[in-house]
Write a structure and sequence with these properties.
With 206 residues, this protein is of the alpha/beta class. The protein has eight helices and ten strands. The two termini are 28 Å apart.
């Protein structure tokens, strides 16, 4: 599969690119700065270019830019993405003195992205820390994925199933991205509080 990672020069994007590369996928990482993308890509052994150039002929686009830039990036890349499925991994969070909390009172980043692009949008992988993806072995956790388009969701589930030692689980329609994004705040808060790199694992599923 050809996977384009918009924002692929960031910590999560680089870790995901390396993991998918090792799984045998054709990976291209993008950035607003083409030279930066090409430099990082050379280190990873993948392709690199501007966000717009890498998403044009991909089978799946991963929107891995910072959450604050996700909406604007989706708007800018909508024409280049076309009908290609998009995986949104963003979570809109606030870092306060009391802890990490969701920044939204309603909706989700993924739903806003879906309103801007023509192709189907899937949400997932928010709860998987980049540090876990960068380890030699897959992280011992589950990957939760939600979306309204069955084919796009199945595409991401098949991919995610090889990213974790646990399971890739169908978490329902895209509206459930609100819960997935909010759960990221909980996990980050726990990791900070206990100086850990905890992940999410559901029990009771055979």
């Amino acid at each position: 599969m050809k996977v384009a990672i918009a924002g692929g020069t960031g910590t999560f994007g680089r870790a995901l690119a390396a993991r998918l590369r090792d799984l045998g996928h054709d990976i291209a990482i993008g950035s607003r700065d083409e030279s930066r993308a090409q430099e990082r890509a050379a280190v990873l052994g993948v392709s690199g270019g501007t966000n717009e150039s890498v998403v044009r002929d991909a089978d799946l686009v991963v929107l891995a830019v910072q959450s604050s830039a996700a909406i604007d990036t989706a708007r800018e890349l909508a024409d280049a993405i076309g009908e290609t499925p998009v995986l949104c991994v963003a979570s809109d969070l606030r870092f306060t003195d009391a802890g990490v909390v969701p920044a939204r009172s309603s909706g989700s980043v993924a739903e806003d992205v879906a309103a801007l692009v023509c192709g189907p949008v899937v949400s997932g992988l928010q709860a998987i820390p980049a540090t876990h993806l960068a380890l030699p072995d897959p992280p011992d956790q589950d990957a939760l994925v939600c979306g309204d388009d069955p084919e796009a969701k199945e595409l991401v589930l098949e991919l995610a199933d090889h990213l974790v030692a646990g399971r890739a689980l169908d978490a329902g329609p895209l509206a459930n991205a609100r819960a997935l994004e909010d759960m990221t705040a909980v996990i980050i808060h726990v990791n900070r509080r206990y100086r850990a790199v905890a992940g999410l694992r559901l029990t009771g599923i055979e």
